[in-house]
Amino acid sequence: MIRQTNTMNAVEVSHLVKTYGKKKEVLALDDISLVVGQGELFGIIGPDGAGKTSLFRILTTLLLADSGRASVDGYEVVKQYKEIRNWVGYMPGKFSLYPDLSVAENLNFFATIFNTTVKKNFDLIRDIYVQIEPFQHRRAGKLSGGMKQKLALSCTLIHRPSVLFLDEPTTGVDAVSRKEFWEMLKRLKQQGITILVSTPYMDEAGLCDRVALMQNGSILSINTPQRVVSEFRNELIAAKSQKMLQLLEALKGYEGTENAYPFGEYHHVVMKKGFGMNGLKSYIDKVSAIPVDMVATEPDIEDCFIALMKDE
Amino acid sequence: MRTLKFLLQKEFRQIFRDPAILRIIFIMPVIQLLVLPWAADYETKNIKLAVVDHDHSAYTRQLLNKITASGYFILNEYGSSYRQSLQQVENDKADLILEIPAHFEKDLVKEEKATLFMAINAINGVKANLGGSYLQKIIQDYNSEVRTEWIQFPRFSPETQIAVTSSNWFNPLMNYKYFMVPGILVILLTMVGTNLTAINIVKEKEIGTIEQINVTPIHKYTFILGKLLPFWLLGMIVLTLGLLIAYLFYGILPLGSFFTIYVFAAIYLFAVLGLGLLVSTYASNQQQAMLLSFFLMMIFILLGGLYTSIDSMPEWAQWITRFNPVSYFIEVMRMVVLKGSTLSDIRNYLYIMMGFALFFNGWAVISYRKRS
User: Fold this and answer.
1) B209: which chain A residues are within 8 Å (Cβ-Cβ)?
2) Are the beta carbons of B372 and A155 separated by less than 8 Å?
3) How confident is the model at residue A1 (pLDDT cuts 50, 70, 90)?
4) Cβ A98–B211 below 8 Å, yes or no?
5) What ipTM was assigned to the predicted interfaces of this complex?
6) Sign of CA dihedral B228, B233, B237, B239
7) In angstroms, what separates the C-alpha of B187 from chain A's closest C-alpha?
8) Mutation site, A113, A153, A162, A164, interface B, largest B CB count within 10 A
9) Total structural domains within chain B
10) How far is Cα A45 from Cα A200, in angstroms, rounded to an integer?
11) Domains, in order of start, for chain A
12) What is the pLDDT of residues A157-214, one digit of tens each?
């Protein structure tokens, strides 16, 4: 089959609104607009309940929006949903395989219901599938978490989708598998597949071409990770001491502190305009006797998101 | 077509890999068919009788012999105090008290009439009712025997008597098993059809695979057909198994043709499978599906004419049975097995069942949505 694409953009969303509840009291998506280009690896970052899953379900034609328009591969999600279902791969947060079917049977099954065969598209999943091939006769229910996820991704890819929606694929996966998973996504991107991936982990944002930050059903910003970081203008200080809890309280008490939060083994302090490290240091010495290490630091994408979410 | 083939293949694989389901499908009907017909017997036997005899005459002994010889009664207590016998009833050691007054024989011979007193424990209504009428019948019999003994030369009959003799058509020996086995088989078929389909689809909802299916271009008719066909086939196998057991253990061979039974069962199964499908579209987890189909089964069984005759139900209940597919199949089964009815005899039932099948499946297909 030849995939026809009638626009440059893989996904277009404009003014999408979705509410839940009888009185529409829960606002899941609040006037969302975004555009994802062909072949882009697009990240949607946001805490639980931000509306990521609702957005994905609308784009994969499983859910109807209240208002607004959306299209995938140039097909309108409401009227041309049948077309979309042919060309979209969706891996829900809780991806489900048939636990009583074997690895190979699951893959075969998903290939058949998309009217294709494993053989035809094997090149696309080869890299992923070779890792689970030794277990191909094992029942899917008996696989480990990482293996299940690889099988799930294989099943999602087996019909060679043009747009891939991955809803929190790395939630509940260990650090090594997470890294591996992102490498796999990069390879898929090279095959020309557009990938939309949602995640609650901010550190994964840097791995995307562009990221959208979502909170409470709205998009706070859409940008490349580099631009997000460069737009961070405030001075950032990392502070460390023996008594981290007291230190955080003390840091928050300073008049020049815009925001202070734990960040790995340090606390990060965002300074207001016109304030600096020296002022902070003398303030801390004055209010508490804790010896403190302080260094000026470069913001990374997490700092930027924390700042954006605080502004909201 | 290729997709349907794979759907079926997947469904059968899953069924055969689930030992619990296999057990339910094959062992449950066998055991139920072997056990239930013996227990679900309408005939009331072993009625415990307490006799309070104040007379102790030859006539009372004759009467008691006749009662115990009938096989329905067990003489549990033979005393001379009504109070004591009532105690036995209270302790559930007697169901019936027969009190024979003093001078029973004397009154009978001299005045040509005597009175007996009967007290019945009515906690178990069926037992009380039947036990009472059995006893009455026996006493009446005894009465006429005594009469014929006296009237040595029946030149004329002092009273006109109407005697009724009956012959039982289609089931001459009134063997309840002939009657129950086909009925129980219908219930089993219904359970396999409704419960398994409902639970199977809801299970896909629970583990979330249905979501995966929904994003694929697969048509919902194909999906539904892929769910119905395996259970339709299983239902037919259960029916075959049941008919085999009916023949091997109860010697029941349908008077009508197997073909008639299978034709009706084929349509009937589509109706109950559709019902299962309908349950599954409304239930969101297996508990809900289970409870809902259990509730329906209770109504189907109690209002299906298996245990109680539909004709003796109040009119409103008879109306409900008209919407109960089980009642039609039980009736058809009995007609074919006992009466030898043919396809043209059960024509109307066939049409009604097709209506049920269309109605349930149509409703289920409409309410099953691939998106919300």
Assistant:
1) 96-98
2) no
3) very low
4) no
5) 0.74
6) positive
7) 29
8) A113
9) 2
10) 6
11) 9-229 (3.40.50.300), 232-311 (3.30.70.100)
12) 999 999 999 998 888 778 888 888 898 899 889 988 999 999 888 888 888 999 998 8
